[in-house]
Design brief:
916 residues; Beta-Lactamase; 32 strands; 25% strand
Length: 916
C-alpha cells in the first residue's frame, strides 16, 4: 500500500495546484488581451489587410479592405481574389500562390488593378507573405493592400503633361534646344533642325562650334558662361549660324540654366528664332533712311524739323519760301518767319493742340519773308514721337498765296451758284457736315415744306429724328484726305410729307472754305409707284425662273416616291393598315406635284383654269391639318362667318395661303406662345371703299384675316416682306418665299393683301377675294381600269431609282422592258436592233444628249418609231414642240402608273392603226 501523505504534504500539493491554476489563469488573460490587441490593430489598420487561403478565398478582411473595394465584410469573405481583380490582372495572385506552395517565394510586392463594387477601376499596391503552421505547412497568405489610385492618376497626368509639353515644343515655330555643359545637343525640336538645316540624328551630340565661326562661337560661349556663373537667364542676344548647306542665317536666342532634381547644373536650354529677314529689313531700312533724306532735300514743299520751336533742320524749298538760307534758319526760333508775335503764338498754340488731339496738326498762317513780303502758308505738323513731343516735330510748309486769291474768286462764283440753285424746281438745301445746321434752302423747298428752316437741324426738321440719321451720307462724301468724293445718289420716302425723292448728295466748298453737304432731291412719288408695280412683276418672273430650274429635279424625286408607292400598293392588300398609309403618301406626293405646277403657273403669269371653290370648306380643312403642325403653346381661334360663298380659285393654292400665313404667325410666337385667330366674313366694297384698294373692283368680296399676338414687324422692313427671298428668320426656318407666294396667288385671283403690324402689338394679314356667282361642280370619281400590254419598250433615264421603278411598273403591266441610263448607249442598242422595240420612252434632261436629240436620231433610223418624251420641266420643249418634232406623246413627270399606262396604250394603239 502506498504511504498515506501527511497533512503537510497535502497542503503543499494544494498550494502548488493553486499556484499553477493562478499562473494558467494569468496566461489565459494575457493571451486574451493579446488577441484583443491584434483584433483592434487588424480592424483599425490604415491599410487593407486580408487572409487568403491556398485556394485564393478571402478568409478574413479588415474594415479598410471594405473601404477600398466598396463591399461589406460578409460580401468580401465570400469572394476570391479573382472576383475583385481586373480581368487583365487576374493571373498575378494565382501565380504567387503556386510559387508559394512550391516553396519558390515567401513574399511578394506588386501593383494590380481591381474593380470597385460600383464598377470603376482602382489601383492597389499589394504586399503578400505566407503563414505556415508548426510543421512548416502553408496555412494562409496575409496581404496588405494600399489604394494607390490617386498616385496612378497623378503619374498618368504627369505622363500626359510631359507628352503635351513635348508636343508644344515640337510644334512651336521657334527653335527649342537643350545642350549639356560642354555645349553638345541633347534635345532639339523640328524648328531648330529647320533653322540649322540638319536632321535630329545629325545634331544630337553635335557641339555648337560645328555650326558657327570662331567669332560667333566666342560670343555664344561668353553668353553661356555668364548664365552658368550667375544662374540667371540671358535674353535675346543674336548671333550668326552656318547651316548645313553652307548658307548663313541670323538667330536671336534666349538661354537659361538647366538643373537636375537636386538643383545641380546639368546643361542649358533655350529658344532660338530665325531673324534673317529682320536683319535684311534693317539693311533695307538704312537704305530707306538715305532715300528719305534725299526726298527731304528734293521735296517741292518746305520741310523742317523743330524742337521746342527751334529749327533743327530745313530743306531747300523752305529756304526758298522764306528767303532765308539754312545757316540763317537752323538754331533760330520759328518767330523769325512770322509777321507778329501774335501770329507766332497763335500757330504754336493751335498746332500743338491739334497734335495732342489727333496726332497731327494743320493750320493756315502768314509768313514774312526775309525781303518783307507777306505770304499765305499752310503748315502741317507731325510729332517724331507721338508720346514725347519734346523729341521734336516735323512740319511741312506750303505756299498757298495763289490759292487764297483763287478762293476769293470762288466765293464770288458761289454767289452766282446759289442764285442758280434758288431757281431750280427741285428741293435743294445745304447743311453743315459737322453741326448738321441748315445753311441754305432754295425757294422750291421752302414752298414745299411751308417755311424757311435755315439755321435749324436737318435731321430734326426734315426727318423727325432725335439724332443724326443712321443712313446719313456725310461719311461717303469726303475721302480719307478730307477731299470731296463723287456724288452720292440714293432714294427714300420722306417721313414728314410721305413723298418719295431721289437724292443727289455732294460735298462742296462753302463760302468760308469748309466743306458742306449739298442735296438736290427730285420728287419721284408717282414714278416710284409705277416702278414698284414693275419690280413686283419682275420678282414674280424671277420666281418662275427659279421654280422652272427646280421643277425637273423635284418632279424626278416625286416620281420615285409616287412610283414606288404605287408598286407597294400593288403588293399590299386593301385590308392591311399599311395600304392606307401608302395611299396617304401617294396623295401627299400628288399634292406636291400640284404645288409645283401652281407655283410655275402663277409666277409666270400664265392662264390658269380656276374653278368655283367654297372657300370656307377649304379653309376649315386647312385648319384641321394645321392644328397638328402648330405647337400647342399657340391657341388657334376660328371665326368663319361666311358659309357657301364661292370664289374662282384653286383649292391647293388656298391651302398654300393659309399654311404660309399661319405657320409664319406660329413661328413668331414659338418662344412665348400666344393666340392665332383666323376669321372670314363677307364684305361689300362700294366705289368709295374700293378706291382704298387700287387693284379691286366694287362688289361682294370674301375677307380672310390671319392675326397673331407675336412681336410684330418693325417699320423698316414692313414694305419688303412680300419680296422674294426676303426673310428675318434664322437659317433653317424659312427661305423667304412664303409671303411672295401668297402675294402672287392673291394677285392672280384679282384680290388684294395688306398687313397691319406694330412692334409688340402683333400682326394682322387681311386678304380680299372677289366672290363669284358660279357654283362648284361635284366630281363623281369612278374606278379606272389600268390598260396592259405585251409589247417591247426601250426606257431611257439618267437616274437609276427612276429606271428601276419604271421598269417594275411597266413589267407589271405586261410589257417587256429594256432600260438604259446613258443616251449614247441607248442609241447604240437601238441601232443594232431597230425592229426589236415597239416603243421608246426617254427622259428630256440627260447628260451629253437630251431626249430631243436622242429622239431625232432614233427617228432618222426608224421614222415610224413611236416615242414618248418625259420631263420634270424644260424650257426647251413642250407638248406643241414635241408634236412638231414627230414625238408621239409628251408626259410631265412625275410618272404616275395610271397616266403612263394610258399614254403608252394610246400611243401603241395609234401606231398599230397607222401601220394598217
Amino acid at each position: 500500500m502506498p504511504k498515506k501523505p501527511t497533512y503537510e504534504e497535502l497542503e503543499h500539493r494544494i498550494q502548488e495546484l493553486e499556484q499553477s491554476e493562478s499562473e494558467s489563469k494569468r496566461a489565459g488573460e494575457a493571451l486574451q488581451k493579446s488577441e484583443e490587441q491584434f483584433r483592434l490593430a487588424f480592424e483599425n489598420a490604415n491599410v487593407g489587410v486580408c487572409f487568403v487561403d491556398i485556394d485564393g478565398n478571402l478568409a478574413r478582411v479588415n474594415n479598410r479592405m471594405c473601404d477600398i473595394f466598396g463591399y461589406s465584410k460578409k460580401e468580401l469573405e465570400s469572394m476570391t481574389v479573382n472576383n475583385i481583380a481586373h480581368p487583365e490582372d487576374k493571373d498575378i495572385s494565382p501565380k504567387f500562390i503556386e510559387k508559394s506552395i512550391s516553396g519558390e517565394v515567401e513574399s511578394i510586392v506588386f501593383e494590380k488593378r481591381y474593380i470597385y463594387k460600383q464598377g470603376h477601376i482602382i489601383w492597389g499596391q499589394v504586399s503578400s507573405s505566407i503563414i505556415k503552421d508548426e510543421k512548416g505547412e502553408l496555412l494562409y497568405f496575409i496581404s496588405h493592400v494600399q489604394d494607390i489610385t490617386q498616385r496612378k492618376q497623378a503619374e498618368e497626368a504627369l505622363r500626359e503633361s510631359e507628352e503635351k509639353y513635348k508636343t508644344i515644343l515640337e510644334n512651336i515655330e521657334d527653335g527649342y534646344y537643350e545642350v549639356d555643359i560642354a555645349g553638345n545637343f541633347t534635345f532639339l525640336n523640328d524648328s531648330m533642325c529647320k533653322i540649322l538645316g540638319y536632321s535630329k540624328d545629325e545634331l544630337t551630340g553635335l557641339n555648337n562650334r560645328r555650326y558657327m565661326d570662331e567669332e560667333n562661337a566666342k560670343k555664344v560661349f561668353k553668353a553661356f558662361n555668364r548664365v552658368y556663373k550667375t544662374g540667371q537667364p540671358y535674353k535675346a542676344f543674336d548671333w550668326e549660324l552656318i547651316r548645313k548647306d553652307g548658307s548663313r542665317c541670323y538667330v536671336e536666342t534666349s538661354v537659361a540654366l538647366k538643373r537636375d532634381s537636386k538643383g545641380q547644373p546639368i546643361g542649358f536650354q533655350g529658344i532660338a528664332r530665325d531673324i534673317s529677314e529682320r536683319k535684311q529689313a534693317e539693311v533695307v531700312l538704312r537704305a530707306s533712311e538715305r532715300k528719305m533724306k534725299s526726298i527731304f532735300q528734293a521735296a517741292p514743299i518746305g520741310i523742317g524739323v523743330v524742337i521746342n520751336r527751334v529749327f533743327q533742320d530745313v530743306n531747300e524749298r523752305l529756304c526758298e519760301i522764306t528767303g532765308y538760307s539754312k545757316d540763317e534758319l537752323i538754331g533760330q526760333t520759328a518767330r523769325i518767319v512770322y509777321p507778329t508775335d501774335e501770329d507766332y503764338e497763335y500757330v504754336g498754340r493751335e498746332k500743338y493742340r491739334k497734335i495732342e488731339e489727333s496726332g497731327t496738326g494743320a493750320v493756315e498762317t502768314c509768313f514774312r519773308r526775309k525781303d518783307g513780303e507777306i505770304i499765305n502758308v499752310l503748315l502741317s505738323s507731325s510729332p517724331i514721337d507721338p508720346i514725347d513731343l519734346s523729341v521734336g516735330v516735323t512740319f511741312t510748309a506750303l505756299d498757298i498765296t495763289e490759292r487764297k486769291r483763287a478762293e476769293e474768286v470762288l466765293r464770288k462764283s458761289h454767289e452766282r451758284f446759289l442764285k442758280v440753285l434758288n431757281s431750280i424746281d427741285a428741293t435743294v438745301y445745304v447743311a453743315d457736315m459737322e453741326t448738321y445746321e441748315i445753311l441754305f434752302m432754295n425757294k422750291y423747298m421752302i414752298e414745299g415744306f411751308g417755311r424757311d428752316m435755315t439755321g435749324e437741324i436737318c435731321w430734326h426738321v426734315f426727318r423727325g429724328e432725335s439724332g443724326p440719321c443712321s443712313y446719313c451720307t456725310n461719311d461717303q462724301l469726303i475721302d480719307e484726305n478730307g477731299k470731296p468724293t463723287d456724288v452720292c445718289v440714293w432714294q427714300d420716302k420722306n417721313p414728314i410729307n410721305g413723298k418719295w425723292y431721289v437724292n443727289h448728295d455732294r460735298a462742296i466748298e462753302w463760302t468760308d472754305g469748309h466743306l458742306v453737304r449739298l442735296q438736290i432731291a427730285t420728287d419721284i412719288t408717282e414714278i416710284t409707284k409705277m416702278e414698284e408695280e414693275l419690280r413686283q412683276a419682275q420678282k414674280m418672273e424671277s420666281i418662275g425662273t427659279l421654280t422652272g430650274g427646280l421643277a425637273h429635279d423635284f418632279n424626278n424625286i416625286l416620281g420615285i416616291i409616287i412610283g414606288n408607292t404605287e408598286l407597294a400598293l400593288g403588293d399590299v392588300p386593301d385590308w392591311n393598315p399599311v395600304h392606307s398609309n401608302l395611299e396617304e403618301i401617294k396623295t401627299a406626293s400628288l399634292r406636291a406635284t400640284n404645288i409645283v405646277k401652281q407655283l410655275l403657273s402663277f409666277s409666270r403669269k400664265t392662264d390658269q383654269k380656276l374653278q368655283p371653290v367654297e372657300i370656307a370648306l377649304v379653309i376649315k380643312d386647312a385648319m384641321k391639318f394645321l392644328r397638328s403642325t402648330i405647337p400647342t403653346t399657340v391657341n388657334i381661334q376660328q371665326d368663319i362667318q361666311a358659309s357657301d360663298e364661292t370664289i374662282l380659285a384653286d383649292p391647293t393654292q388656298i391651302n398654300q395661303i393659309m399654311m404660309n400665313l399661319c405657320i409664319n404667325a406660329s413661328q413668331a410666337m414659338e418662344q412665348t406662345g400666344g393666340n392665332l385667330k383666323i376669321s372670314m366674313e363677307e364684305v361689300i366694297l362700294d366705289d368709295n371703299s374700293a378706291s382704298d384698294y387700287p387693284d379691286l373692283r366694287s362688289g361682294k368680296h370674301i375677307k380672310v384675316t390671319v392675326s397673331d399676338t407675336g412681336p410684330g414687324i418693325v417699320p423698316e422692313i414692313i414694305d419688303r416682306i412680300f419680296d422674294p427671298y426676303f426673310t428675318t428668320k434664322e437659317v433653317g426656318k424659312g427661305s423667304g418665299m412664303g409671303l411672295a407666294v401668297v402675294h402672287g396667288i392673291v394677285k392672280n385671283y384679282n384680290g388684294a393683301i395688306s398687313v397691319d403690324s406694330k412692334p409688340g402689338k402683333g400682326t394682322t394679314f387681311s386678304i380680299l377675294l372677289p366672290v363669284t356667282s358660279e357654283k362648284p361642280v361635284m366630281e363623281v370619281k369612278t374606278p379606272e381600269e389600268i390598260p396592259h400590254g405585251n409589247e417591247s419598250i426601250l426606257f431611257i433615264d439618267d437616274e437609276e431609282p427612276i429606271v428601276n421603278m419604271t421598269q417594275q411598273m411597266l413589267e407589271r403591266l405586261g410589257y417587256k422592258v429594256e432600260t438604259k441610263m446613258i443616251p449614247v448607249e441607248a442609241l447604240e442598242k437601238f441601232q443594232s436592233k431597230p425592229d426589236q422595240f415597239d416603243l421608246v420612252i426617254t427622259d428630256m434632261t440627260m447628260p451629253k444628249m437630251t431626249g430631243v436629240m436622242l429622239s431625232e436620231k432614233i427617228l432618222e433610223i426608224r421614222p415610224d418609231m413611236p416615242i414618248i418624251i418625259c420631263t420634270g420641266h424644260s424650257s426647251l420643249i413642250d407638248e406643241e414642240k414635241a408634236k412638231q418634232l414627230g414625238i408621239a406623246a409628251y408626259v410631265m413627270k412625275p410618272i404616275v402608273l395610271t397616266k403612263i399606262a394610258k399614254t403608252i396604250r394610246k400611243v401603241l394603239d395609234e401606231a398599230k392603226s397607222s401601220a394598217h
